[in-house]
Amino acid sequence: MSQPLIELRLWRQFLALAEELHFGRAAVRLHMTQPPLTQAIANLEQSLGVRLFDRTKRSVQLTPAGEALVPEARDLLARALALPAHARAAAHGEVGRLRLAFVSTVGFGLLPQWVQAFRALYPQVEFELIEATGDVQLQAIERGDVDAGFMLHSPGFAPEGLQHLRIAREPLAVALPEQHPLAQARSLSFSAVLEEPLVIFPRRILPSLHDAIFGMYHTAGRAPRIAQEAIQMQTIVNLVSAGLGLAWVPDSVRQFQRPGVMYRQVAAKHAQEVPGCETTLVWPARANPTRDRFVEFARTRAARH
Question: Quick one: which of 33, 213, 286, 298 is 20 to 30 A from 152 by CA?
């Protein structure tokens, strides 16, 4: 089985002759003499097993096989010329693939805006976006299946063993059914909220925030009454709309406008008793130029945010 012909010099010679249709002019263009060019084209045809040119004493013409190879040879040489710039761009993180995981709260506004802005700056970076809870993200990062992830947690509880960048800090709001008596009150009573059934995420997916919410109840001398657990914030809000209970959600979830649900803050005098939450970009220490480029982009955006 013959080896593929990938020597670029041969295809430069072929293309020069295909465009000049004259051995003498093609040789001058290639800065060589005519006999070596004639021999090179003959060797190329022999290797391919087809004639690329019809030759007479007065003319040189492309055969159908030769005509078919002209655009392919041009493309091959153009891509070869582009390789050094492509390699430099890849080394600087301007080309490549970024596997980015995110919790659902980031998808309400921040993530689409950032992806759009980053793509405008670096159009040759391909995104693979993966919605996943924090526990799933940590496993994927450890396996090397994810390059970075947006995670939610209590302030100061970013996952250990990973690089991290705080993106945002926000308070918790109360999601409650629109027709609930508390929704109509002028001021949302903190003690009354604590008496209501609670819709919450399982501890395994967000332990620090789960513990902070339970700690708030215990500090107030109450025990939370769990009505239902759900993994995604959208599902939690949907369950609230169905009247199963109230829910403590990041303030950014307000952007998820589910009919039948209102978002309220507790009375100002109790605001300090309600825990907040942070969104953090996390990534492993292993080298990844494209991810590092995105981290620097995120650092700039977070500072503005």
Answer: 286
